[in-house]
Each structure stands twice: as structure tokens, then as C-alpha cells.
Design brief:
The complex is a heterodimer of chains A (123) and B (159).
Chain A lengths: L1 H9 L4 E5 L2 H7 L3 E4 L14 H17 L5 E4 L9 H5 L10 H23 L1
Parallel strand pairs in A: 1-2, 2-3
Chain B lengths: L5 H11 L27 E6 L3 E3 L13 E4 L7 E3 L20 H9 L5 E2 L2 E4 L6 H18 L4 E5 L2
Chain lengths: 123, 159
């Protein structure tokens, strides 16, 4: 997503990225970033919490209008839960990231990607 | 407590799965920047998500082709859903579209006059392993659609 934001911005379209993977987005380098320290999947606020979503989208709009330069991160002032153990469990072998059909689709994509790559090399 | 270091975590995780070549996450020293050209209240706002959003009862996105597509922002939000696999399903849910594609929230902001309007379409970009595909195919496709729709600024929601 950071790569798309960069392309838009380089072509004259201002952007703001909402995300939960701070290290990945900042490693890429995007013009404006609203970071919520939430699980992957809820970049614009807690599900079914319209007040929080409204506030987070509002912070993004403030940043869109007010950022003085590139690479600005705004951290939203919310905690996902008092229990932060979800952060310890994500992407651990004890809690597989993809399982069952989801993992099968991922493996299918990897195989298709490799086949496409081999085909391009052969041409 | 500090935020999750996903770059480190994915490296360790996939090493444990037997993948010995770590993914090289995109990195740039220079960051482009375009100031907002006019007040938000006069801006038409575009919306992009990686949530693989689809319309109930219609064909689901092609998870192998993984090409950019667009859907009308006027689609009733209760008809939209996400078919994405890659999110933290143990800690959150994709059952509320507005948590990753805030169409309802933006509609409220249009009604309140905070933003000028919403683009007629929103874009779905797949998280692609190939950064080259994202940069040379997907990102130009999003830009072209934003230009066709007269978009002034874009919110991108990364799942």
C-alpha cells in the first residue's frame, strides 16, 4: 500500500495511509501515515465503534491538510485492549497466520507466481 | 507496550516454516510529497484498500490474477464484505467494513461539509509479493482511475 501512496503522491495526488504495521510502512517511507496500534485488519478503528472510526478518519484528514512535509506519522491515541497478549501471539508458530483453506490459497498463489516467473524467464 | 515489529516477526515466522530467503520489504530514502492543493471542504476524496472487498452475491475477486479493480462507493455498505485471508483473525474481525474501508464515516463527513465529496469508485489493490508489479502495474492503474474520477486526495487503508 505504501508503494501505491508513493506513486500517487509523486504524480501530484496527496495521500494518507492508515495502517497497523508501523515498521513496514515507515521502512517503506510514505508521505503521511496514521498509525493505530491495532491488530492487522482494523486500520481505521475498532470494528463497530463508529465514534473511534470517525476520530481516526478525522486525524487522517487533519494530516492530509496540515502535514508540512513527507514522512509524517500520526499515532492515534487508542489502546486495542488492556490485555496486549495479541501482540505476542501474532505470527508465531503457536498461532499459525494462515490455516486450512486460507493457507491452501496462499500456497496456490505462490505456485502460480513461481510458474509465471519461470515462464517469463523462458521467453 | 511497544508496537509489533512485523518485519522481524515475519522473518522468524517464515524461517520456522522452512523459507530461508527472507522477504525484502520495500525501502526508499526519498519520500515524495504533494501538498493538498485546496481546502478539504472542496476536495473529492478517493479511497483505496487492500481488504479484497467484494459485493455479496457477485463473483469474488480473482485471488490468483490479483489485479486492481474498482467498485462504486455508492454500494450500500451492508452489501460489501472482505474476503481477505491475511489479517489477524485471532484478535479482530473483518465483519465491519468501515474499520478498513470507511465509506460510511466519509459519507458523514461529506454531509457535514468537512470534505467536498467522495470519488464515484473506490479501488482494491492486492498485497502482491512482487513490488515491481505493485509499482509498475497496480499503482499506475489506481492513479489512472483517480484521474478519471477527478480525485483531489486519496485515503489508503492497509489491512
Amino acid at each position: 500500500m505504501g508503494l501505491v501512496a508513493r506513486h500517487l503522491e509523486a504524480n501530484g495526488v496527496p495521500t494518507v495511509v492508515f495502517g497497523c504495521a508501523r515498521d513496514i510502512v515507515e521502512h517503506c517511507g510514505v508521505p503521511r501515515f496514521v498509525f493505530s496500534d491495532f491488530p492487522l485488519g482494523s486500520p481505521c478503528g475498532r470494528p463497530f465503534d463508529p465514534a473511534m472510526q470517525r476520530a481516526i478518519v478525522g486525524l487522517g484528514l487533519d494530516l492530509l491538510a496540515g502535514a508540512a512535509g513527507p514522512g509524517t506519522t500520526v499515532v492515534t491515541p487508542y489502546e486495542w485492549a488492556a490485555d496486549t497478549s495479541w501482540k505476542d501471539r501474532i505470527l508465531t508458530r503457536a498461532q499459525p497466520f494462515l490455516e486450512g483453506e486460507a493457507k491452501a490459497r496462499w500456497l496456490e498463489r505462490k505456485a502460480a507466481g513461481r510458474a509465471g516467473q519461470a515462464e517469463r524467464k523462458a521467453r | 507496550m511497544t508496537h509489533v515489529r512485523y518485519i522481524d516477526r515475519t522473518r522468524e515466522y517464515y524461517l520456522g516454516e522452512g523459507y530461508t530467503t527472507p522477504y525484502r520489504w520495500a525501502h526508499f530514502d526519498e519520500i515524495p510529497f504533494t501538498p493538498l492543493p485546496k481546502p478539504l471542504s472542496a476536495c473529492r476524496i478517493g479511497l483505496v484498500t487492500t481488504a479484497e472487498v467484494a459485493v455479496r452475491g457477485e463473483a469474488s475477486p480473482d485471488h490468483l490474477a490479483r489485479t486492481v479493480y474498482a467498485l462504486p462507493t455508492a454500494t450500500p455498505v451492508e452489501q460489501l464484505y472482505s474476503g481477505k485471508d491475511a489479517y489477524d483473525r485471532h484478535a479482530t474481525t473483518l465483519d465491519d467494513v468501515d474499520a478498513y474501508l470507511p465509506i460510511t464515516r466519509l459519507g458523514e463527513l461529506v454531509a457535514a461539509g468537512r470534505i467536498g465529496g467522495l470519488a464515484a469508485r473506490f479501488q482494491v489493490v492486492f498485497s502482491n509479493y512482487s513490488q515491481r508489479t505493485t509499482m509498475t502495474v497496480d499503482a499506475p492503474a489506481v492513479l489512472a482511475q483517480c484521474r478519471e474520477d477527478g480525485v483531489d486526495a486519496v485515503l489508503l487503508c492497509a489491512v
